[in-house]
Amino acid sequence: MSQNPPSLRPDLAPAPRIADTRRPGQPTIGMVSLGCPKALVDSERILTRLRAEGYAISPDYKGADAVIVNTCGFLDSAKAESLDAIGEALRENGKVLVTGCLGAEPDYITGAHPKVMAVTGPHQYEAVLDAVHRAVPPSPDPFVDLLPPTGVKLTPRHYSYLKISEGCNHACKFCIIPDMRGRLVSRPVHAVLREAEKLVQAGVKELLVISQDTSAYGLDRRHDRHPWKGAELRSHITDLARELGRLGAWVRLHYVYPYPHVRDLIPLMAEGGVLPYLDIPFQHAHPDTLRRMARPAAAAKTLDEIAAWRAICPDLVLRSTFIVGYPGETEAEFQTLLDWLDEAQLDRVGCFQYENVAGARSNALPDHVAPEVKQDRWDRFMEKAQAISAAKLAAKVGRTIPVIVDEVDADGATCRTQADAPEIDGNLFIDAGFEGLAPGDIVEVEVEEAGEYDLWGRLRG
How many whole angstroms separate alpha carbon 358 and alpha carbon 135? Predict the structure, then answer.
């Protein structure tokens, strides 16, 4: 089955950025981190624990005494990528330990790669550490092995993912994440805020809030209250977002389901405390398709909700992902999705062609769509989404907007606007007068040119 373009794959995480620093004789571990940003956070936690125990972190295979591969198991194509990564690590290094979502199927891994040294499941930090200890015994030096206050980060210094919960209570028929990661388990609000505060104090300029279902944050805790800076806060997304907005960094919310209480977040965005950006996985628009997915089937009400959000915050940017070719999807149902997209005018859109996932209930549904039909619908969907994106970006020409700098090289500065999350959305490029910029700078830029997904501009004095 053909894969979706990498730029539209939410199961492809940012590439690890690891400095090569070690002392003589120090045991060294490499990390290959696949999967979504939530898995990237798991990788950071594992490496932080290992670093605290005296291990160095290698940026390449040859410099490592062993390699951990943190896998993705969400889609069959992602499983294949994980097996390929394990095979590459075995060829290049030889000592390989496997963890992550695909680790929930150890026989699947060892059947393909019997020489792996250990297999552990998702967020099994202690089991991973035990496996590393067996493969490469620790040798800490308390006088030399210092750990930065933020732990080991795999993202650039100026932004960081902030995981607020694990697991999911939804039962979407195409998804096996609840089987792999369990039901919703939220972190206490004061623990999340403590981590966020440390990150900002260490120089992080943008906090990307992630979970499987950000809107449901704290539901499992019955929105319990915790003291924070002389006040009591609920473990609730509204309280959390409001307090995060007071830390002075950009705050970007991902994986937000359109529950009614999401409307309470919009005034925070209009006031500037939280970025006017919502990442909402709508998946489809036709009520019958949504019912077969076992998802809420109120697309018309969602359009009303979107209109109400934009009335409060006109600059609100909406990002979403959709599935085309879901079992039973008719041409009429697909046309409803296109018409809905026309009306919703979403800013950033990604799309998957449906594929079976081992263990998913959707596999057993009747009337699977032929591959050539799925491809045709994907092409038509992306053509419409691309046209909407191009028109929205063209409307920004002449405006002056804040951007955050991600990279600077000899050719220019690669930046992002408040409408762009790292790795999955577009960029704004500055190709003149950029010499004084550095990653993490937030500057004002006048937009001069727009493409289908990216912008170009010049610095304003």
Answer: 31
